[in-house]
Amino acid sequence: QDNSFEQFIINYCNEKLQQIFIELTLKEEQEEYIREGIEWTHIEYFNNAVICDLIENNQTGILAMLDEECLRPGTVTDDTFLEKLNQVCATHQHFESRMSKCSRFLNDTSLPHSCFRIQHYAGKVMYQVEGFVDKNNDLLYRDLSQAMWKANHALIKALFPEGNPAKINLKRPPTAGSQFKASVATLMKNLQTKNPNYIRCIKPNDKKAAHIFNEALVCHQIRYLGLLENVRVRRAGYAFRQAYEPCLERYKMLCKQTWPHWRGPARAGVEVLFNELGIPEEEFSFGRSKIFIRNPRTLFKLEDLRKQRLEDLATLIEKIYRGWKCRTRFLLMKKCQIVIASWYRRYA
């Protein structure tokens, strides 16, 4: 119920994770259909980039203004920080504060004067402004770090590398908010180089009890985790896509015309393969570089046919090997019999 600076930066991280989830699952997928020339009707979704910008913008973001308050000379309090937010963010559609003198919130008794509220992707969250400035400041003074670095204990010395006289930096230490922002940026950069798989966890109830499902709580999570938009994109789109070359290489054994070698473009080979298998036209689409399969059952059918074909090929290889082995043994026995018979006739 009481949210301060710690919960604020946690929610900021959640917003960034939600943003990369949107980029990779909703935006990127729809752009791929357009890029591949697949007929597609765009599905609208809420992009939370505007919320991330409200928090991390270098000029008008909440973290930037908090750092500015921590660094500027003069009397600095949590109230002056809130006043600054009210001046800069008063008109932002996702920022709410009674001190901003905005007509929308003057009569909102659920919003105290010493708080501000952000409409996050997953709902509105109210933050107590008290303690923001103190928690954002790095209160570990440079002379304390230097004293710890001079300790004889190896562990204590290792915990304070910034106290090394050879690495003295006269600049003011970075604030907690700026350090966290840099860490989140590093995390996002790392995730964007990967191909992540998402697992969304739904909390069924607040009692941590088994076999109890709170329908309102579950629906709230589904709505605010972006699962509805994701399901709409998935149902309207294609469950599987693959480049023509690996697709043909994997399933070419299912068609006599493409097995064992296909002499021609990979796309033409895939077309021949799918026509031979009698897959309905509404179940797949040909892109510029990929084949798109709409329903998982079509893919399961291909995999089942491939598994059966592998078993048939294994049986065929086994049959040919056994025939070769028996024929080789028979020819060897026949040759031996001829040799024995010729020697027997010679001495008979």
Automatic annotation (TrEMBL):
<keyword id="KW-0547">Nucleotide-binding</keyword>
<dbReference type="GO" id="GO:0005516">
    <property type="term" value="F:calmodulin binding"/>
</dbReference>
<comment type="similarity">
    <text>Belongs to the TRAFAC class myosin-kinesin ATPase superfamily. Myosin family.</text>
</comment>
<keyword id="KW-0505">Motor protein</keyword>
<dbReference type="GO" id="GO:0030048">
    <property type="term" value="P:actin filament-based movement"/>
</dbReference>
<dbReference type="InterPro" id="IPR027417">
    <property type="entry name" value="P-loop_NTPase"/>
</dbReference>
<keyword id="KW-0112">Calmodulin-binding</keyword>
<dbReference type="InterPro" id="IPR001609">
    <property type="entry name" value="Myosin_head_motor_dom-like"/>
</dbReference>
<keyword id="KW-0009">Actin-binding</keyword>
<dbReference type="GO" id="GO:0000146">
    <property type="term" value="F:microfilament motor activity"/>
</dbReference>
<dbReference type="GO" id="GO:0005886">
    <property type="term" value="C:plasma membrane"/>
</dbReference>
<keyword id="KW-0067">ATP-binding</keyword>
<dbReference type="Pfam" id="PF00063">
    <property type="entry name" value="Myosin_head"/>
</dbReference>
<dbReference type="GO" id="GO:0005524">
    <property type="term" value="F:ATP binding"/>
</dbReference>
<feature type="region of interest" description="Actin-binding">
    <location>
        <begin position="184"/>
        <end position="206"/>
    </location>
</feature>
<protein>
    <submittedName>
        <fullName>MYO1B protein</fullName>
    </submittedName>
</protein>
<dbReference type="InterPro" id="IPR036961">
    <property type="entry name" value="Kinesin_motor_dom_sf"/>
</dbReference>
<dbReference type="GO" id="GO:0005903">
    <property type="term" value="C:brush border"/>
</dbReference>
<dbReference type="GO" id="GO:0051015">
    <property type="term" value="F:actin filament binding"/>
</dbReference>
<keyword id="KW-0677">Repeat</keyword>
<feature type="domain" description="Myosin motor">
    <location>
        <begin position="1"/>
        <end position="307"/>
    </location>
</feature>
<dbReference type="GO" id="GO:0005737">
    <property type="term" value="C:cytoplasm"/>
</dbReference>
<dbReference type="GO" id="GO:0006897">
    <property type="term" value="P:endocytosis"/>
</dbReference>
<keyword id="KW-0518">Myosin</keyword>
<dbReference type="GO" id="GO:0016459">
    <property type="term" value="C:myosin complex"/>
</dbReference>
<dbReference type="GO" id="GO:0007015">
    <property type="term" value="P:actin filament organization"/>
</dbReference>
<dbReference type="GO" id="GO:0005902">
    <property type="term" value="C:microvillus"/>
</dbReference>
